[in-house]
């Protein structure tokens, strides 16, 4: 594959006919998009669809032999990768900041040198110096040279790093602090264009709000990926969906080229729902047409002849009528077969089935969720339950149709509370009463045998594996991925496999710990839309701002547990 043609643009990010191979698999095909000054384009799509690869390609970090097409970007284009590169062990916070702002301070050196040259007695040299001075002055104003120190303090404070000692080694900082420092360095560097891969990772709500304000006023183009739907909605001026599975013709229909939507995530959802409705309508119409054509083809000339009353009375007249009927039917059959061949050449793919939890009646040990055995009695009751250093005393009742959202900062004990509800952690204080079946989607997955293929691991978690639909049928994993060992799947794919048994054999009490983490945005939306119709009770623990803003059930907010190190969650 020919390497991509790289060229500089004055102010825009431009992709034209970009294709990327990952080994023998075509990851991206014929991608074309433009992000101009002031545009903030969010890239979304299924895990593994190529979003991070696309950003690396634009930044010039991808192996040129695996890509083709044309890539244009401004001269100063900077990338925030999802996985940070290792820094020198002895590098200190202040030194990292100095490195980031070095290009801005260099403008001051240019300005000073040009100012000195203005006094030259050589007229041409003085004129050239005046041009250099004017250009440096424009760059200085754009980069905020004269307010640089104040901006450094503002950015560090906005990202929660203001209280750190500038002499602190990066090796002594947490992973979240180093991530926030990488964001700060990029903002202080003031490149012409930004490429951001999951920029809100490890940022709290205040830091995310600060980053949103920064990007809303960024003069150059911004291209970013994010699983944070609230961030997408607040920041994006456009959304490009590069999910190859979405569209009537699948990847053949060019969906891998990127389907662009105007506006933020809310606008994208509305437009995608309209696209999906049209897709379902087109599929239904084609299926009806196929059934009609099959009926026409299945009707023989003999059957048609016997349904007709020949208009002649003599033997010759009967043959004439029979021949004419056969000719008419033959023409109809040929037309039907030709039309069916056309449909086979470019069929409308079956639309994805929305995620739906199966009812309790699908199980042998059926329980009517509308009238559970215990009547109005709670499924679970906690009486002043506490776990030492992890969860302060909590009292609550979970009813048969409860919908409860558990909120709180890291260290508040959200995951611990769900583990207590599930019976996986015994409290040190208080009493637990439980009268229901419980299933939990943990924040971090664990598998008894990671060498098992995904399909086998899923079925091993079921009570009735023989009658259960496959992962592909559920729309949670493609057939090819279903045969891959769990250990070789991405975290997002493993998350889908862990969710599958809960969808097929839903417990009376469903516990979801950060359920939208590592899920493609489309699946996260489907999961949330399925919650209101869940046949039992649901308790969710989540940091997800989008989920929290749209929640319509009860809310329990936990404060950080006393004397608890905040590393729990």
Polypeptide structure, described:
This protein has 569 residues and is α/β, with parallel strands linked by helices. It folds into 4 domains: 1-76 and 192-263, Rossmann fold (3-Layer(aba) Sandwich), CATH 3.40.50; 88-189, P-loop containing nucleotide triphosphate hydrolases (Rossmann fold), CATH 3.40.50; 282-345; 360-557, Rossmann fold (3-Layer(aba) Sandwich). It has 17 helices and 18 strands. A 6-stranded mixed sheet has the order 6-7-8-4-9-10, with helices on both faces. A 5-stranded parallel sheet has the order 15-16-17-13-18, sandwiched between helices. A hairpin with a 3-residue loop joins β11 (380-387) and β12. α12 packs parallel to α15 (491-504). The longest helix is centred in the middle third of the chain and has 34 residues, at 265-298. The model is unreliable at 251-256, 361-374 and 564-569 (pLDDT under 50).
What layout of secondary structure does this protein have?
Layout: E1 5-9, E2 13-22, E3 25-35, E4 40-44, H1 51-59, E5 67-74, E6 77-80, H2 93-117, H3 123-143, H4 148-158, H5 175-189, E7 193-197, H6 205-216, E8 222-225, H7 229-235, E9 238-241, E10 259-262, H8 265-298, H9 301-307, H10 315-345, E11 380-387, E12 391-398, E13 403-407, H11 414-422, E14 429-434, E15 438-441, H12 454-460, H13 471-474, H14 479-482, H15 491-504, E16 509-513, H16 521-530, E17 537-541, H17 545-550, E18 554-557
Parallel strand pairs: 1-5, 4-8, 4-9, 6-7, 7-8, 13-17, 13-18, 15-16, 16-17
Antiparallel strand pairs: 2-3, 2-5, 9-10, 11-12, 11-14
Helix pairs in contact: 2-3, 2-5, 4-5, 8-10, 9-10, 12-15
